[in-house]
Amino acid sequence: MSAYKAFKACVPVEWSDKLYITLVRGMPGTRELHRLTLEALCLRKSNRTIVRKNTPTVRGMLQQVKRLVAIETKEMYEARKQKEANHRALQPPLVISHHPAPKTDSS
């Protein structure tokens, strides 16, 4: 289990005042009720994230479509975005010299 997944498993969603909800699976092939629930949450395209207040109504809607969405707290969302930014950051160029190293006298 990665550190991020371990952290995600330990943080109770009920304690957070806002929820970051990301649609991770597409809507085609899902039930009509699930599609209507996702539209009520304003999730229409995959990999889009919305922010909602943590209320029992929203948690009930998320319980209905839990296999289609990823639910994160603010800290979890920022940690994931930071990890993605570090992954996309430019790496220093790799310099390879094809010339042999100069010989030194070891006597």
UniProtKB/TrEMBL annotation:
Alphabetical GO CC annotations of the entry are: ribonucleoprotein complex; ribosome
Q: SUPFAM superfamilies annotated for this entry?
A: Ribosomal protein L30p/L7e
Q: From which domain of life does this come?
A: Eukaryota
Q: Which UniProt keywords apply?
A: Ribonucleoprotein, Ribosomal protein
Coiled-coil positions:
none
InterPro entries membership = Ribo_uL30_ferredoxin-like_sf, Ribosomal_uL30_bac-type, Ribosomal_uL30_ferredoxin-like
CDD domains registered for this protein in UniProt: Ribosomal_L30 (cd01658)
- Domain Large ribosomal subunit protein uL30-like ferredoxin-like fold: where? 20-69
Region entry Disordered, spans: 83-107
Belongs to which family? Answer: Belongs to the universal ribosomal protein uL30 family.
| The protein, known as | Large ribosomal subunit protein uL30m
Identify the species of origin: Cinchona calisaya
Cite the source lineage. Answer: Eukaryota, Viridiplantae, Streptophyta, Embryophyta, Tracheophyta
